[in-house]
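re: ur question from yesterday

yeah so i grabbed the chain u mentioned. its 121 aa long if i counted rite. heres the sequnce exactly as i have it in my notes:
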Amino acid sequence: EVQLVESGGALVQPGGSLRLSCAASGFTFSNYDMSWVRQAPGKGLEWVAIINAGHGTTTYADSVKGRFTISRDNTKNTLYLQMNNLKPEDTAVYYCNAKLFSGLVVQREYWGQGTQVTVSS
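ran it thru and got these structure tokens back, copy pasting raw so excuse formatting
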């Protein structure tokens, strides 16, 4: 059974930090491009960051560049998101996403259940 289980969400003050984790099981984690995607209250999904399966290349949305760091540990089948200098607009449910590409085509895709991050004083 495929599972993506996020953890680490919490209530934090503006300027604070959090580290989210996503534990993967049931598939070959190292073969998948992994992303964080978030959904703020009343808004659509917003892609946050991606780390590729091969060379571990990372890319970030402009809204989080310089503040968030995505990383992965293929020995632990775990994805991370280090979030620093958090802002109220970072408040959202954060989802872990796994994609297996065949060329440019998404062959398989999995989602976690999400973890709530609230940034408020």
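noticed a couple things. The longest strand covers residues 92-102. also The radius of gyration is 14 Å.
anyway ttyl
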